[in-house]
Design goal:
Number of helices: 3
Number of strands: 16
Distance between the termini: 35 Å
Oligomer: single chain
Shape: globular
Structural class: mainly beta
Radius of gyration: 22 Å
Strand content: 35-45%
Length: 219
């Protein structure tokens, strides 16, 4: 059995697919975003084959996705620019040698249509933000020193237990029907000598104009 399923929130669309069997000679998948007008756009390339370099404008048609799921992090930007917020995704298996890939002669699959929005119903909205990779540089920017010169760096003036990377606080602001209904701040994760960087994710659920749940996760 072969199928593709898309999921969306207010920030990103994730699409996953399966062919129910191993695809011999498959080198990866080209994934196309399909807008309500039927316009297909290949998603940008990320990873490349050994010996190749990625150039501006390269897509997954040239450097295919070698997974069975992918996140379209550009969908929200497209939606904000064009006003089109509903998309489907077409998955095309590719075969051949790197640089000369062609579609395989097996059926292609297309996902369900999803809308990138926070709205789940008239009374329910869910908001997610993106994680922030915090480094020592952010820590220095948050607490600038009044001293000048290289010695002013917090990595040289802070005690050893404070020299590890810190996680910056994350904020959520919920606006419903044009008014602020909730906000939340998540305190930094305590710095230790074993923490190098921490990615925080925060989420909030709004029900009928009131915040009813929130979470912060530090993996």
């Amino acid at each position: 059995m072969q199928n593709a399923v898309a999921f969306a929130n207010n920030d990103v669309i994730t699409v996953a697919w399966s062919y129910g069997q191993k695809l011999e000679r498959c080198m990866g998948f080209a994934v196309y975003r399909i807008d309500p007008d039927g316009q297909e756009t290949a998603l940008p390339a990320v990873a490349v084959f050994p010996g190749f370099k990625r150039a501006a404008g390269d897509t997954c048609e040239k450097f295919p996705i070698q997974k069975f799921y992918w996140k379209d992090v550009y969908a929200r930007l497209v939606a904000e620019k064009t006003g089109q917020r509903k998309f489907r995704y077409k998955i095309v298996p590719l075969e051949g040698a790197p640089g000369t890939l062609v579609p395989m002669t097996i059926p292609q699959v297309t996902s369900n249509e999803v809308e990138i929005t926070a709205r789940l119903s008239d009374g329910l909205h869910a908001y997610f933000n993106r994680g922030l990779i915090s480094t020592q540089r952010i820590s220095r920017a948050e607490r600038p020193s009044t001293r000048s010169g290289p010695e002013s760096s917090s990595s040289m003036t802070s005690p050893p237990e404070m020299r590890a990377s810190r996680a910056s606080a994350r904020y959520i602001v919920i606006i419903d029907a044009g008014r602020l209904v909730a906000s939340a701040t998540y305190a930094p994760v305590p710095a230790t000598s074993t923490i190098r960087r921490t990615a925080l994710r925060a989420a909030a659920i709004v029900w009928s104009g009131s915040i009813c749940g929130s979470a912060s996760v530090a993996p």
